[in-house]
């Protein structure tokens, strides 16, 4: 019966790549998990991983800051356009009031 189960599992793993990945990433850590093994290689792997994620986070924050700076510039330009339009309309209203009085 055990042979039959292994044959079925083998057939499933060929048809479903996720099955083979699940078997590879088993919870027992026996699939060559260097970091979990400890020692010098484990420490180096942990340091490399931390360095990678810090670099990625720094790049994401830089990208976010650039995007926000662009948005601020855009809105400041729009605000100036609106202030100019307001000034133009106020000037026109003042001219119309002067014509009305005259």
Automatic annotation (TrEMBL):
Q: Which UniProt keywords apply?
A: Coiled coil, Mitochondrion, Transit peptide
Q: Give the residues annotated as coiled coil.
A: 65-99
Where is this chain's protein located in or outside the cell? Mitochondrion
- InterPro entries given in the database record: ATPase_inhibitor_mt
Q: Which GO terms describe its molecular function?
A: ATPase inhibitor activity
A GO CC term assigned to this protein in UniProt: mitochondrion
* Pfam families, sorted: IATP
Q: Which domain of life does this protein belong to? A: Eukaryota
Family to which this protein belongs: Belongs to the ATPase inhibitor family.
Q: What is this protein called?
A: ATPase inhibitor, mitochondrial
Origin organism is Daphnia galeata
